[in-house]
Amino acid sequence: MAWALTRVPLLDCSGTPPPVPPLVTAAADNLHARLNAQLALGDYGNAVADAVDEMREAGNSKDKFKMAQSLTDVARCFKAKDLNLLRANRFLEYQKTGQGENPLPTF
């Protein structure tokens, strides 16, 4: 059965990525898909804006899962932009304890 996989052509990823509108438009109704598209295209400003909006909505709903997901999405934006976890962890620690400096305004 493994021999059948050798006949499947590989996906060609050598071209330039598609322009922003088709990717983001395709994911318009799904916040997490839209965040993924924005982060993949390097559109960090819009990605963090969507994540912060999600965080505000989650705070109003009092749903702990939504709040945890929204905080994770903001941290993902930091991680994608910085290519490390320093500011992402600082953000999460600030949200958890209220101590230290909030790195979000400097994004």
Q: In a nutshell, what does this entry contain?
A:
This protein has helices spanning 20-26, 31-40, 44-61, 64-82, 86-97. The chain is mainly alpha-helical and 107 residues long.
Protein structure class: mainly alpha
- C-alpha end-to-end distance: 50 Å
Form type: elongated
Mean of all residue-level pLDDT scores: 85
The residue fraction in helices comes out at: 55-70%
Approximately what portion of the residues adopt beta-strand conformation? under 5%
Instruction: State the order of secondary-structure elements, H for helix, E for strand.
Output: HHHHH
Q: Nearest-angstrom radius of gyration?
A: 17 Å
> Which residues form runs of ≥5 with pLDDT under 50?
none
Describe this protein with a few key phrases:
5 helices; 107 residues; 62% helix
Topology summary:
Elements lengths: L19 H7 L4 H10 L3 H18 L2 H19 L3 H12 L10
Helix pairs in contact: 1-2, 2-3, 3-4, 4-5
Molecular structure report:
The protein is mostly helical and 107 residues long. 62% of the residues lie in helices and 0% in strands. It has a domain at 45-106. The chain is elongated, with a radius of gyration of 17 Å. The model has no long low-confidence stretch (mean pLDDT 85).
